[in-house]
Amino acid sequence: MSTLGDKRFVLITGKGGVGKTTVCAAEATALAAEGKRVLIAMCNAKERLSTMLGVPRIGPEIAQVGANMWAVNMQPEKALEEYGILVLRSRALSKTLLDNAYVRKFLRAVPGMQEWSMLGKAWWHTTEKRKDGSFKYDVVILDAPATGHGLDMLRVPKVIVDVVPAGPLRRDAERAWALFQDRATCAIVLVTLPEEMPTTETIELAQGLTAMGLHVARVVVNAVLPSLFEQGERAALEGLPPFAVVTAGDAALLAARDRAIRERVQGDSMQRLAASFPEPASLPMLFGEAADPAAILELSKRV
User: Fold this and answer.
1) Which of 53-62, 114-123, 292-301 has the lowest mean pLDDT?
2) Domains in the chain, please, with CATH?
3) For the whole model, what pTM was predicted?
4) pLDDT (tens digit, 9 = 90+) per residue, 181-207?
5) What average pLDDT does this structure show over 197-222?
6) How far is CA 16 from CA 147, 185, 190, 191, 243, in A?
7) Looking at the chain, which terminus has fewer C-beta neighbours within 10 angstroms, N or C?
8) Which residues of 86-121 are buried (b: 16+ CB within 10 A; e: fewer)?
9) Up-side HSE of residue 154: CA atoms within 13 Å toward CB?
10) How many alpha carbons fall within 13 Å on the CB side of residue 30?
11) Distance from C-alpha of 133 to C-alpha of 155, rounded to nearest angstrom
């Protein structure tokens, strides 16, 4: 059962290659199974979510990808066009304005505008309502860009609030920024691996978010190996002198030494994370196919 069911907006980020999209898929699957209506929003991503969910390729239009689950792969220009329609309240007027080559060139040159077009769109979906007045989506999950880019994206609404004159853009940025700061309705989740560099980047990312006035709700350590060796066994294996691999036994001993080293690094990384974050969650290493619906279903039971 997911611990994020009471949130309206969940932003998931971390170093590239740590399994952000896998965690997004697992969280969404868990929430949907609980009856929550969930939207997964990707940021112009190299799309892999469809393979994980066993559905057709996900594009810039919102598509249903399962019971109680929808997804979209946001593209900056299309997201900006949708935002223009919302602000101008006219599709024709928005299209006329945004189709102008000079306007497009100007908007592309505005720092942070592409990031805001996607972040703002994801936020806006938290405000959408159905005819009966209920929210269209109970939870919006943003599969945010990796570490540095994710941090830059989150800075944009605060910059807009600080420097842009009063108007629709600033109004929406203020509302979005207030949501991101609200621990009751927004959760920022950092995904990492039990390795030295991802652990360091995760701690530094959390410090950067804290400096911005944002709160990290949860850290998920992905691909955690089960321990095969006791501490003394690991030390003995790591202390082996160099040797030539001649027999199958030599190869097995070399593999054991490599595994012992990896377990030590994993243990050190988990200790560092536990010292920085209360009760980091962990997902197991899947030794089979980790990017298919069966794997995501298994992980959804553990998030």
Assistant:
1) 114-123
2) 9-229+279-300 (3.40.50.300)
3) 0.89
4) 999 999 999 999 999 999 999 999 999
5) 95
6) 7, 26, 11, 10, 35
7) N
8) eebeeeeebeeebeeeeeeeebeeeeebbbbbbbbb
9) 31
10) 21
11) 31
